[in-house]
Structure formats: C-alpha cells, structure tokens
Design brief:
The chain is an alpha+beta fold. The protein has one domain (about 15-175). It is built from three helices and twelve strands; from the N terminus they run E-E-E-E-H-E-E-H-E-E-H-E-E-E-E. The strands form four sheets. A six-stranded mixed beta sheet has the order 3-4-2-12-7-8, covered by helices on one side. The longest helix has 14 residues, at about 95-110.
C-alpha cells in the first residue's frame, strides 16, 4: 500500500474550484444551459427567468478524466508536489449534483461568505471524513458536509495506484438584492 501523502497548499490559498453561488440573481433570456452554470429548476413566482445559482470555471457535468487540460491543471494546482502522473480525487460524475444540494441550502439560508472544506477520499473512492477550514454558517456547513460524505469519488492516484487523498471544495456565496 502506498503511504505517500500529498498535501493541499498551505491555507488552501490557491482556489482550484471557485464557485460563485448567487441567490436572487437574474439570468439572460434564452441563454442555453451550459456545463459551467446551474440554474433554478423553476423561475421565482411572477418571473419567467430561471436564476443562475452557480457559476464555475470548471465543467460541472464531467468526470475528471473528461475535463480539458486547463480544468485539470486548475484542480491539480492546489496539491503540493503532485507528480504529473498522479491525480487528485474528484466526484465520479462531476460536481453538478453536489453543487445543486449545497446551493439549495444557500437559497434557503441566504448566507454570504466563503466555505472551505476538504473531504478525505479513500483509495476506493469513499468519503471518509470532512474537515472545515472556513464557513459562513453552521447549518450550511452541515448540509455541505453531508453532501460531500454522500458523494462517490474517483480516488486519487499515487504512483499509478488508487490512494487516499483529500478533495478540496471552495465556494464563494453571494446574495444579490
């Protein structure tokens, strides 16, 4: 069993996933749903516009191996000393459902601020534990931690073998008036 550990960069400063979760923000008419945003299921009462809830620079609909080179580079950038042939863990089917769960809670709570969490992913792709580094609201933290623990992951890869490694989630919550 491989015991090499890769650590996230100090203070989790370089954000490899930056989500802008926006409540009460209008989206443009006729805009196609794309893999970089998540909209409400239904428009708010009295509106025909589905509001954009999540925007990200990394596709939410793709597993790690289907992300483009730049998206993979952004994800890898938070891991210190991660050799080129190694890979970080990542949600098996992308981040859309994870972000849907978390943004649903944010819409109800209307909190703003930064949420920084890691989930330790086992060599079999199971979530083992969650660590919280920053949170704007304890209720939102509970929902996010539960969502992270329920997720199935592609495990990290160390020296060609599946290995335990943390997966970082950084979300910037905003409330537009």
């Amino acid at each position: 069993m491989n015991t090499t550990r890769y650590h996230l960069l100090p203070y989790l400063g370089s954000l490899f996933i930056v989500f802008a979760v926006v409540a009460a923000m209008g989206a443009a008419y006729g805009q196609q749903v794309d893999e970089h945003s998540l909209k409400q299921d239904k428009p708010a009462l009295g509106s025909i516009v589905k509001k954009r809830l999540v925007t990200t620079v990394i596709s939410m609909d793709k597993p790690y191996q289907d992300l483009n080179i730049e998206e993979q580079r952004l994800i890898r950038s938070d891991y210190d000393n991660l050799p080129e042939q190694d890979e970080p863990p990542y949600p098996l089917r992308g981040t859309r459902e994870l972000m849907r769960k978390i943004s649903t809670a944010q819409q109800l709570l209307l909190v703003k601020g930064v949420l920084k969490m890691t989930v330790d992913v086992s060599s079999t792709g199971e979530a083992e534990s969650v660590s919280v580094y920053e949170s704007p609201n304890s209720d939102l933290t509970k929902v996010a931690a539960l969502a992270l623990m329920e997720e199935k992951y592609k495990p990290g890869v160390c020296h060609g073998e599946p290995c335990k490694m943390p997966f970082l989630v950084v979300i910037h919550f905003k409330v537009a008036l």
